Amino acid sequence: MIAKWDDRYAPEVIALWNQQAVKDGYKEMTEERFSGIFLRNAYFDADNTFVWLEDGRVRGFACGCTGDDLPLGDVAGYITCIVLADGAQAEERYAALLGALEGRFREKGKRQADVLFFNPMQLPWYIPDTPRHEHNNAPGVPVGSALHSFLLRQGYAERAIECAMYLPLDGFAVPDDIRAKEEKAASNGYRVEPFDASRHFGVGEMLDALGNPLWRKEIAQSAEDGVPVLIAHREGRAVGFAGPVIRQENGRGYFAGIGVHPEHEGHGLGTILFFRLCEAFRHIGTDYMSLYTGSGNPAIRIYERAGFATVKQFAVMRKELQK
């Protein structure tokens, strides 16, 4: 049977996660981590969080979230996870938990259900064949997982395949051909360097032109707070960015993204920014970088050129909800 969330279920859900979800590469849950990702999250909704009970024991867990202020949040509910124990993974149990999530989305006035990287409940996962290096967020459903196959059978469409990419930074150096690209860009008045509020301006306008609300918030705040950010500029006016440049406690280089103002594309600035970003991370003692990008994104060639390899794939999925 399905039951709505009660905090007394937390220990059993954590045990379930550490038995089952880890098989898809997700990081183990502690009580503190589970509370931080789910229960203390600003978007946690007890009415959008469910357990499957058999003989009073938790055998399944499902969670979703909504928020009108989230990207697509005015029309979409986000599916965070559906996990079932070994021996309980029957189609009808998956369907019951999914139906409960979709029902809550409808109650909240949402017209679609999405599994995508905008979900504020970020699930860390281990990068395969590494010394437990991890990425901070799963951008979709692991391709080939039981949940991926189930959602396809339930009419969810693959909107994109996200390639998770990885690079150890030991020995990374900017190659000569990138330095030559920098010289050519410089001949057209462009420079790439750390943001300095006393010499650079126009970051907000540049971010507005890129149209990414997450970048607009995080990069602008980083620049204001003095967190390192690389920018491309022309005569001091920002025309692109990469960053922020933050080494996480686990040794990973955290950054929000890279962007170049549409009016200043075609000068190799994205490539230069990315290589200089990798260099900046190495200089602050970062062990590795990981990122994800769409399988059809031309930027994947830049990442591969820097030495990144695809280590896992995730499906971004959507279903239109019937009223």
Key attributes of the depicted protein:
17 strands, 4-stranded antiparallel beta sheet, alpha+beta, 11-stranded mixed beta sheet, about 325 residues, Aminopeptidase
Question: What does this protein look like?
Answer:
The chain has 323 residues and is an alpha+beta fold. The protein folds into 2 domains: 2-164 and 316-320, 3-Layer(aba) Sandwich (Aminopeptidase); 176-286, Aminopeptidase, CATH 3.40.630.30. The protein contains 9 helices and 17 strands. The protein has helices spanning 10-20, 31-39, 91-107, 146-153, 176-187, 203-210, 213-225, 269-283, 300-305, and strands at 2-4, 49-54, 57-65, 76-84, 112-115, 125-126, 134-135, 141-142, 157-168, 190-194, 230-234, 237-243, 246-247, 252-254, 257-260, 288-294, 309-320. The strands form 3 sheets. Strands 1, 2, 3, 4, 5, 8, 9, 13, 14, 16 and 17 form an 11-stranded mixed sheet that branches. Strands 10-11-12-15 form a 4-stranded antiparallel sheet, with helices on both faces. It has a two-stranded antiparallel sheet with strand order 6-7. A hairpin with a 4-residue loop joins β13 and β14 (252-254). It starts with a strand and ends with a strand. The relative contact order is 0.14. The model has no long low-confidence stretch (mean pLDDT 95).
In terms of per-residue confidence, which ranges show pLDDT below 50 for 5 or more consecutive residues? none
Strand-and-helix sequence, N→C? EHHEEEHEEEEHEHEHHEEEEEHEHE
The number of helices is 9
Shape: elongated
CATH H-level homologous superfamily name of the largest domain? Gcn5-related N-acetyltransferase (GNAT)
The chain-level structural class is: alpha+beta
Radius of gyration based on Cα positions: 21 Å
Q: Which band does the percent of strand residues land in?
A: 25-35%
CATH topology of the largest domain: Aminopeptidase
Number of domains: 2
CATH class categorisation of the largest domain: Alpha Beta
Write down the overall mean pLDDT.
Answer: 95
CATH architecture of the largest domain, by name, is 3-Layer(aba) Sandwich
Distance between the termini: 24 Å
* Beta strands, count: 17
Q: What is the multimeric organization of the chains shown?
A: single chain
Level of helix content? 25-40%
Largest sheet: 11 strands, mixed
